Amino acid sequence: MHSYRTHKCNELRKSHVGQQARLSGWIHRIRDHGGVLFIDLRDTYGLTQCVVEEGSSLLAAVGQWRNESVVTVTGQVKARTPETVNARMPTGEIELEITEATLQSPAAVIPFQIAEDDGAGEDVRLRHRYLDLRREKMQRNIRLRNAVIFSLRKRMWESGFQEFQTPNLTASSPEGARDYLVPSRLHPGKFYALPQSPQQFKQLLMVAGFDRYFQVAPCFRDEDGRADRLAEHYQLDVEMSFVTEQEVHDTMTPVIKGLFEEFADWTGTKHRVEWLPKLTYKDAMLKYGSDKPDLRNPLEIVDVTAVFARDDVEFKAFKGTIQKGGVVRAIKAPKVSTQPRSFFDKLNSWAQGEGAPGLGYILFEPSSSLPPAGGGQGGVAAVEGKGPIAKFIPPAAIAELCKLAGAEPGDAVFFVCNMEGPAAKFAGLARDKICDDMGIRETGVYKFCWVVDFPMYEFDERAQKVEFSHNPFSMPQGGLETLEKTDPLKILAHQYDCVCNGFEISSGAIRNHRPDIMEKAFALAGYPKEVLERKFSGMLNAFKFGAPPHGGCAFGIDRLVMILAHEPNLREVNAFVMNGQYEDPMMNAPSEATPEQLKDLHIKVDLPRTVKKTEAA
RNA sequence: GCGGGAGUAGUUCAGUUGGUUAGAACGCCGCCCUGUCACGGCGGAGGUCGCGGGUUCAAGUCCCGUCUCUCGCGCCA
Question: Which of A164, A309, A472, A573 could join A561 via S-S bond, C-beta 3.0 to 4.6 A?
Answer without folding.
Answer: A573
